[in-house]
Amino acid sequence: MPYMNTHIxxxxxxxxxxxxxRAKNPHYSLRxxxxxxxxxxxxxxxxxxxxxxxxxxxxxxxxxxLSLDPELRSKLITSTTAFKSDxxxxxxxxxxxxxxxxxxxxxxxxxxxxxIELKNFQNDAKWISRRLGISIVDTNTALERLFRLGLVxxxxxxLTQTHKNISTTHDxxxxxxxxxxxxxxxxxxxxxxxxxIEKRDITSMTMAIDSSKIPQAKEMIKKFRRQLCAFLxxxxxxxxxxxxxxxxxxxxxxxxxx
Length: 258
What we know:
Shape: elongated
Strand content: under 5%
Distance between the termini: 28 Å
Number of helices: 11
Number of strands: 4
């Protein structure tokens, strides 16, 4: 069943609009869009980065400057209220370099970082090994790497993270990132056979789409991931480590006469 959405995220929509204009003209800049909207480029930059929200008055101004059709104009303006009242705030993430990520690309490095947050966590390689189903050798090697990169520290025989949330770069080709994503997909395949349906959710949806909306869709997925992360990590009763994967990919192939 199609999902009907009466709201759009004004920030994500602006990002998509900027991406579409750059696709038509690679020299199109943020300053040029800001001039078109009659707002300072610094303010537009803060909106696109999530540091400033789109107010109702600004949404009206944007709709007027871009001569939006009545339906889109209405959605954009009414959505300024809908997205202002979001109950879940996205957690902040600190980005690590690709060089650092290359060292800890194997899935269990990030699993150990999350495992540390469990209420019953034990600073013991054998315990970590049993909980993650990896060898003692891999466990000790992973811990050494996490210490070397400064992502964990130890005090009074207690391990703690030095950074609450970390992320990698986005939309950049990387062998390490591909390796990590491949492992996540392989773990999901294993879970289909080994994890009861009550403890997992693996679903899919096939749809015919407007591919120009992919940049906006990716931003919506990122927002969903981070809000879900905030929801699941809230509270003090942490007893398991989960991995979330969202796949959005084409299954049609381009042909020469497209």
